[in-house]
Design brief:
- This protein has 406 residues and is an alpha+beta fold.
- It has a domain at 5-72 and 102-178 and 270-355: FAD/NAD(P)-binding domain, CATH 3.50.50.60.
- It is 35% helix and 28% strand.
- It starts with a strand and ends in a 20-residue tail after the last helix.
- The relative contact order is 0.17.
- Bound molecules: 8-demethyl-8-dimethylamino-flavin-adenine-dinucleotide and P-hydroxybenzoic acid.
């Protein structure tokens, strides 16, 4: 098989890249290790930045998101039992976020690619990268007992944190930086009506909690737990008792209980690989960086990386110029480090660290007090939460999206 761009991974990064390139007449093959059913049902992110929403709309895959997604103009921060609203829309000249589940974005993108005749190979095994430092890199894999090879002009490694793409870059060039947090998130999906019109991020002595949503019938909530804790220790009763203890507030506000239809525990880390390109391999999304979910940035960064990459590839095929491709890492990393800063900060001010002294806990509360009472500090939170703009050093970007470009 031969294609222009071989894409490893059908997550938000890989599928969006394939879609954006298709719109510019560039051919791709997406190679994914899981089944279509699995990728379309894995519960992950929920919050889409304004720029992500604009790009999904501008590229023609936003219709269902606009119907079923929930637009949020603000968030609430709760500490010492009281809620404080950050009016993001007012503080950012009208920007908002949209709550729309990641697996729904995946369904929309898979649907659009398949309808346009795009090639996605599901259930690929033993995916490996070859000759990435030559003019014709290759991807090999097995499927249903047969071996395959895809020769291409470039490879996009969009295979998440544990995929093989990043590992294909020589270790000495990777320059990896990471921080592991002593926190985990226990996430649940519950069948109840919405608890609150906006997300509530809670700092409580017993630990962080987050009230989020998915639809009028299903809600998504999270509790800070030990990252090594076992789900078996968390019965429905214990989860509700803990959510009530952390979130119910003095003004009579109470979390609504309902059947729990899904639960999982995820550990939290920050990670950046400080080259995102080697030879003809470009890595994007979680393959190159990870943020703790507190800032809701991971999926959004995956989309902004492939926005830059698609611009670079279009520039290359249309004019033979490699300016954007050569600066791919540099352009992406500027924005990635700011999202890293924000996610680390949100995580630090909201989680209870058992190693902290009472002095450090009071400083944390003072930080929350400052953020919710100073216009300058809440503006900073708001503009990062709705998403920072993306710089592309070329005015002829393929899909002009004002909120993405400065
Ligand atoms: P993905 O989504 O991990 O997709 C990678 C794909 O590659 C496939 N793959 C392989 N394919 C072929 N061969 C191999 N050897 C392969 N190995 C892996 C995988 O099967 C998969 O299909 O990476 P991508 O595209 O970079 O997207 C990143 C996002 O998924 C991630 O950053 C977000 O989910 C993070 N995140 C959030 N991000 C937000 O922007 N807003 C949020 O509200 C938000 N909330 C969250 C989150 C992540 C969470 N968890 C589960 C860590 C909430 C949580 C709880
Ligand atoms: C979610 O709804 O899954 C969600 C919301 C906000 C976050 C992280 C996850 O910061």
């Amino acid at each position: 098989m031969r294609t222009q761009i071989g894409i490893i991974g059908a997550g938000p990064a890989g599928l969006m890249l394939s879609h954006l390139l298709h719109l510019q007449g560039i051919e791709t093959i997406v190679i994914e290790k899981r089944s279509r059913e699995e990728i379309e049902s894995t519960i992950r992110a929920g919050v889409l930045e304004q720029g992500t929403v604009d790009l999904l709309n501008a590229s023609g895959v936003g219709e269902r998101m606009m119907k079923e997604g929930d637009i949020h103009q603000g968030i609430e921060l709760q500490f010492k039992g009281k809620r404080h609203r950050i009016n993001m829309q007012e503080l950012t000249n009208g920007k908002k976020v949209t709550v729309y589940a990641q697996h729904e974005v995946i369904k929309d993108l898979v649907g659009a690619r398949l309808q346009a005749g795009g090639k996605i190979i599901f259930n690929a095994e033993h995916v490996s990268l070859h000759d990435i430092d030559t003019g014709e890199p290759k991807i090999r894999f097995r499927k249903e007992g047969m071996n395959y090879e895809v020769a291409c002009d470039f490879i996009a490694g969009c295979d998440g944190f544990h995929g093989p793409s990043r590992q294909a870059i020589p270790k000495i060039l990777r320059n990896e930086k990471q921080k592991v947090y002593p926190f985990g998130w226990l996430g649940i999906l519950t069948q109840t009506p919405p608890v609150n019109p906006e997300l509530i991020y809670t700092n409580h002595e017993r630990g962080f909690a987050l009230i989020s949503t998915r639809s009028p019938e299903v809600q998504r909530h999270y509790l800070q737990v030990d990252p090594n804790d076992d789900l078996k220790n968390w019965s429905g009763d214990r989860i509700w008792t803990e959510l009530h203890a952390r979130v119910d507030s003095e003004d009579g506000f109470k979390v609504k209980e309902g059947p729990i239809i899904q639960k999982n525990i995820v550990a939290m880390r920050s990670f950046v690989c400080e080259t995102m390109q080697y030879g003809r391999l470009f890595i994007a999304g979680d393959a190159a960086h990870i943020v703790p979910p507190t800032g809701a940035k991971g999926l959004n960064l995956a989309i902004s990386d492939v926005y830059v990459l698609s611009n670079g590839l279009v520039q290359f095929y249309q004019s033979g110029k490699k300016e954007i491709l050569c600066r791919y890492s540099e352009i992406c990393l500027r924005r990635i480090w700011k999202a890293q800063r924000f996610s680390n900060w949100m995580t630090t001010i909201l989680h209870r660290d058992v190693n902290h002294s009472s002095y450090e806990y009071q400083v944390q509360l003072a930080e929350l007090d400052y953020v919710t009472s100073s216009n300058a500090a809440s503006t900073s939170l708001a503009e990062n939460y709705v998403g920072l703009p993306l710089e592309i050093p070329d005015n002829n970007s393929i899909i002009f999206s004002e909120s993405l470009l400065v």
